[in-house]
Design goal:
By secondary structure, the protein is of the alpha/beta class. It is built from 5 helices and 8 strands.
């Protein structure tokens, strides 16, 4: 039965499908985090899952007025921490948006001191002029320098940080590995899939 018409069609389909599978780009595998130890890269991480909403009277100093990380987000952060540890990374240099969900993400990674970076803040109408906020992020990205050997640099921000550099935002808890190049379009060298 394999030598008849249908057998030839099936053989042709298998040949074509194997060619397509070989010639199609491979799925974007997660970046090998151990490479971060050599320096030259920056991780842009979107905060983990957060519930609630930012209120109209948002106050960066008061988490009750903002979205916050819940159980699902804490689980994601724990998994991200384990990924870094499994790659031999026991310390990170963490710069975070001042919003609670980003700060909580960085703190839950528990791999270094968290420093607030206002340039990573998400726009809220109480935060001033939208264009000024986003221009500040662009200037920050342009001036960004990848660390040499030592603790890798991880930026914890929001969807707009990806969009500002012309990229689709990662899912909550996911990110990209970048190679800064003095422009607001750093080279993307890898992905970190959200847990």
């Amino acid at each position: 039965m394999g030598t008849g018409f249908f057998g030839h069609v099936l053989a042709a389909l298998l040949l074509v499908s194997s060619f397509v599978m070989v010639s199609a780009p491979a799925d974007a595998a997660d970046f090998d985090l151990s490479k971060l130890k050599a320096g030259g890269y920056v991780v842009l991480l979107r905060h983990v899952k957060a519930g609630g909403s930012d209120s109209d009277d948002l106050d960066l100093a008061d988490c009750r007025t903002q979205r916050q990380v819940g159980a699902a987000g804490r689980k994601q952060a724990a998994e991200l921490k384990q990924r870094f540890l499994a790659a031999g990374i026991t310390e990170l240099r963490l710069l975070s948006s001042q919003y609670c969900r980003a700060l909580q993400t960085a703190e839950l990674l528990d791999l270094g001191t968290v420093t607030e970076e206002p340039a990573l803040n998400y726009f809220h109408w109480r935060m001033g002029d939208k264009d000024a906020v986003y221009d500040g992020l662009r200037r920050f990205i342009v001036a960004l320098e990848a660390p040499g050997e030592g603790p890798p640099l991880v930026l914890v921000g929001h969807t707009h940080a990806f969009n500002i550099i012309g990229l689709e935002a990662a899912d909550a808890g996911g990110g990209l590995v970048l190679r800064p190049n003095g422009s607001d379009r750093p080279e993307v060298v890898g992905t970190i899939t959200a847990p």
